């Protein structure tokens, strides 16, 4: 496979970024990261012509690459700082992980579908992105690698996973779409002490479901 980022791709990406800005994300650091990540390289080749539309698309194994606006919103709500240690649940195509890496974070990402985990782990470093990849159940997080400054869930969760709350630093933030399968509310969960947190809601979205266990 050839990994090309042409002037045409870059132009389309600029337009995508302006669209996201108009839809309400004004954070320049987030927009710069979206402008840098070649989204077309994260998608099935059959969908290449749609890479710079602000839409979610199938990536195989019944999963999707999130809509760029949703990625921008979750990234904005996470308030990423350089050198943040971030846990992502739901590696998928690796696009969200790449955006976080562009912002200077260290990224630990978990995927429960073996096929996606293997595929993304082999492709991403070739595009220049090196998160730490894990095959496992995001409900359990990564107890031996925590605690994390930030945690981002990229699948729709029915509840806040207890183990993830434990692995979040005091003062840390978790961004999690939560609710029934049909639609979820985007929450920011801020951990205020070892036993306390508060949450704010930020609109409704539709994600693929966060499932328990792994696929094998
Ligand atoms: N962040 C991805 C979005 C992928 S969609 C991207 O940028 O492309 C959500 C992903 O979450 C799917 O790949 C799905 O398999 C995964 N997922 C669902 N439940 C999970 C769990 N319990 N642990 C880890 N990954 C999970």
UniProtKB/TrEMBL annotation:
Task: Identify the GO cellular component terms for this protein.
Answer: cytoplasm
Could you list this entry's UniProt keywords, alphabetically sorted: Cytoplasm, Methyltransferase, S-adenosyl-L-methionine, Transferase
Q: Where is the active site?
A: 66
> Is Kinase given among the entry's keywords?
no
Coiled-coil annotated spans: none
Which major enzyme category is it? transferase
Q: Does the keyword Magnesium apply?
A: no
One GO MF term, please?
A: protein-L-isoaspartate (D-aspartate) O-methyltransferase activity
InterPro entries reported in the protein's UniProt record: PCMT, SAM-dependent_MTases_sf
Its UniProt entry gives the catalysed reaction(s) as: [protein]-L-isoaspartate + S-adenosyl-L-methionine = [protein]-L-isoaspartate alpha-methyl ester + S-adenosyl-L-homocysteine
Xref: Gene3D superfamilies: Vaccinia Virus protein VP39 (3.40.50.150)
What Enzyme Commission number(s) apply to this enzyme? 2.1.1.77
Classification via PROSITE patterns: PCMT (PS01279)
Q: Which GO terms describe its biological process?
A: methylation; protein repair
Q: Where in the cell is it found?
A: Cytoplasm
**NCBIfam families according to UniProt:** pimt, PRK00312.1
Q: Which family does it belong to?
A: Belongs to the methyltransferase superfamily. L-isoaspartyl/D-aspartyl protein methyltransferase family.
- Per its database record, what is this protein's job? Catalyzes the methyl esterification of L-isoaspartyl residues in peptides and proteins that result from spontaneous decomposition of normal L-aspartyl and L-asparaginyl residues. It plays a role in the repair and/or degradation of damaged proteins.
The identity of this protein, by name, is: Protein-L-isoaspartate O-methyltransferase
